[in-house]
């Protein structure tokens, strides 16, 4: 499997489709794939991506949808955690603002750049 196939598999494997047929990614799932061990550090990347988005004329609310998520913890209990529903362009901005020393970030940059361009055509 070549590098292009690997990156497509990694990012496609965590892609979801919403009720309206739009592709999206969970920030919590993307965090793991992009090798961020701590949510708070990944939240900084999301904040930087939102700031980059704020520089344009488009609303970030359309691309970064905040949502709570319930997770299972010990003995069947559940806990609410923060998450985002990230549309393709949000993922692209996150990749652009990620830690460029990580190889997976450069894979994400390429993958989401190509996918975002496909969406615009």
Entry summary:
The protein is an alpha+beta fold and 121 residues long. The chain has helices at residues 3-13, 27-33, 39-54, 88-96, 103-120, and strands at 15-17, 23-26, 64-72, 78-87.
Description of the structure:
The chain has 121 residues and is α+β, with helices and mostly antiparallel strands. The protein has one domain. It contains 5 helices and 4 strands, in the order αββααββαα. Strands 1-2-4-3 form a 4-stranded antiparallel sheet. α1 packs across α5, α3 packs across α4 and α4 packs antiparallel against α5.
- From the N-terminal CA to the C-terminal CA, the straight-line distance is 28 Å
Helix content: 40-55%
What's the structural domain tally? 1
Helix and strand pattern = HEEHHEEHH
Number of helices: 5
- Biggest sheet, strands in spatial order? 1-2-4-3
What Rg, in angstroms, do the CA atoms define?
A: 15 Å
Biggest beta-sheet profile = 4 strands, antiparallel
Question: Oligomeric form of this entry?
Answer: single chain
Keywords, please?
alpha+beta; 4-stranded antiparallel sheet; single chain; globular; 121 residues
Blueprint of the fold:
Blueprint: H1 3-13, E1 15-17, E2 23-26, H2 27-33, H3 39-54, E3 64-72, E4 78-87, H4 88-96, H5 103-120
Antiparallel strand pairs: 1-2, 2-4, 3-4
């Amino acid at each position: 499997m070549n590098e292009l196939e690997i990156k497509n598999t990694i990012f496609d494997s965590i892609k979801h489709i919403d009720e309206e047929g739009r592709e999206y990614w969970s920030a919590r799932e993307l965090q793991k794939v992009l090798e961020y061990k701590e949510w708070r550090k990944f939240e900084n990347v999301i904040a930087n991506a939102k700031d980059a988005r704020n520089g344009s004329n488009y609303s970030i609310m359309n691309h970064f949808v905040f949502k709570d998520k319930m997770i299972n913890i010990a003995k069947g209990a559940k806990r609410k955690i923060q998450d985002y529903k990230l549309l393709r362009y949000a993922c692209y901005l996150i990749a652009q603002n990620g830690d460029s020393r990580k190889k997976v970030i450069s894979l994400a940059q390429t993958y989401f750049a190509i996918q975002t361009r496909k969406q615009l055509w």
